[in-house]
């Protein structure tokens, strides 16, 4: 017999509703998760974007506003992503290109700015975000190739998962004491800000040592509410 679910509204006083809502949230989030991570990353990038003019690449742009912010700062921006995206805006200094960074040809030493927001940790992990070509060191190759595209002294704003070194296929990598230096090889760290979740599941600033000691975990279905890591936000300068 097919079940029929009927939902009847039940009036609840505002104070009681607030208490029940907070209790539900507390029960559901007893362990850290990724809720709010984009707020940290996008606001950090906006705060550290230099003023143009110049050539910029938003690597793995998705449909976020980071490309638009850079365009409004005076850069000519190429937003690059493996998957097609529709933007709810148009700007004369912004173009979208769909494709694989490692399969496209860009002029060398051309870029003044690279935005690398929660992207490089996915490179080479097949099965998510349109990634089809597996590559154990795809992330390292991408960072090396981006250096070749950047002018000497050019800036990269890079946000990545940090904690104890881990790989959660097909979700992401987490960068710790072993792989983080390899990822950032050839760059000078001009600024580094780390964030972890506190006892109330809020993102708070933390020392690098604390962030790198965080033990990450991930849900096989890539559910962000069942996944956790610390966040590393880096302003990098190309040493080439």
Folded structure, characterized:
The protein has a single domain, classed as Rossmann fold. The chain has 6 helices and 10 strands; from the N terminus they run ααβαβββαβββαββαβ. The chain has helices at residues 14-28, 37-48, 66-72, 138-149, 179-183, 208-212; strands at 54-59, 75-81, 94-98, 111-117, 150-162, 166-168, 172-174, 187-197, 203-206, 230-238. It has an 8-stranded mixed β-sheet. The longest helix has 15 residues, at 14-28. The termini are far apart.
Q: Which value, in Å, is the CA radius of gyration?
A: 20 Å
- Share of residues in helices: 10-25%
Number of helices: 6
General shape: globular
- Strand content of the residues, in percent? 25-35%
Any idea how many domains?
A: 1
Average pLDDT for all residues: 90
The CATH top-level class label = Alpha Beta
- Residue runs with pLDDT of under 50 for 5 or more positions: none
């Amino acid at each position: 017999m097919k079940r029929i679910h009927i939902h009847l509204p039940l009036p609840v006083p505002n104070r009681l509703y607030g208490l029940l809502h907070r209790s539900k949230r507390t029960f559901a989030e007893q362990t850290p998760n990724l809720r709010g991570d984009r707020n940290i990353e996008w606001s950090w990038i906006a705060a550290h974007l230099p003023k143009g003019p110049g050539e910029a690449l938003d690597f793995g742009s998705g449909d976020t506003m980071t490309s638009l912010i850079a365009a409004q700062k005076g850069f000519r921006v190429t937003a690059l992503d493996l998957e097609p995206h529709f933007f709810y805006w148009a700007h004369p200094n912004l173009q979208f290109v769909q494709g694989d960074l490692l399969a496209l040809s860009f002029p060398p030493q051309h870029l003044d700015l690279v935005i690398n927001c929660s992207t490089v940790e996915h490179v080479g992990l097949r099965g998510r975000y349109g990634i089809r070509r597996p590559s154990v060191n795809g992330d390292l190759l991408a960072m090396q190739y981006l250096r070749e595209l950047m002018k000497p002294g050019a800036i990269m704003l890079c946000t990545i998962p940090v904690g104890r070194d881990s790989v959660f296929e097909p979700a992401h990598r987490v960068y710790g004491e072993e792989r983080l230096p390899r990822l950032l090889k050839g760059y000078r760290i001009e600024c580094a800000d780390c964030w972890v979740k506190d006892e109330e599941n809020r993102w708070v600033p933390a020392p690098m040592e604390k962030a790198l000691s965080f033990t990450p975990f991930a849900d096989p279905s890539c559910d962000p509410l069942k996944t956790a890591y610390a966040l590393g936000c880096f302003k990098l300068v190309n040493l080439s």
